[in-house]
Design brief:
This protein is mainly α. The protein has six helices and no strands. The chain has helices at residues 12-17, 20-33, 35-46, 53-82, 106-109, 112-137. The two termini are 31 Å apart.
């Protein structure tokens, strides 16, 4: 996976020990890491004539959802900063330059099944990290 080089916690216990700010940064970093590969994946599958239109629209829908999620996390981050929950040190870190991520051709060279496996793995991480972050910010949710 093209994101394998990113340092991410192994398991929920370790993720719970990461400070809010770092966890937020990690979420943004993972979401940004998929922007370009998803774009290339969509271009790749558009050329497969044998794929049903439903598959093509689902792939585009996933890309749009990742973009919307990243935008939503950025807005939550801004709100957390304005409330003093986290510092302003995350400003400008949502771009691939700001997070020090160089997207290689590795993501573009993966087989479709490997690509989907990696995407699912990272999606599950993002989901877990968001749940942990939510519980830290809103502890009344009895997490």
């Amino acid at each position: 996976c093209h994101t394998s080089g990113m340092l991410t916690p192994n398991g929920k216990e370790y993720a719970q020990k990461i400070p809010r700010e770092e966890l937020t940064h990690l979420i943004l970093k993972l979401l940004q890491a998929w922007k370009e590969p998803l774009f290339h994946f969509n271009q790749h599958i558009e050329h497969h004539q044998e794929l049903p239109d439903d598959s093509l629209s689902k792939a585009k829908q996933i890309s749009n959802m990742v973009h919307e999620l990243k935008t939503g996390v950025e807005k939550v981050t801004e709100k957390m900063q304005s409330m003093g929950i986290i510092s302003n040190s995350l400003n400008g870190m949502a771009s691939s330059e700001g997070i020090g991520l160089s997207i290689s051709n590795e993501a573009n060279m993966m087989s479709d099944s490997d690509f989907i496996h990696c995407f699912r793995r990272d999606s599950n991480k993002v989901q877990s990290y968001l749940k942990i972050l939510k519980c830290r910010i809103l502890p009344e949710n009895s997490c």
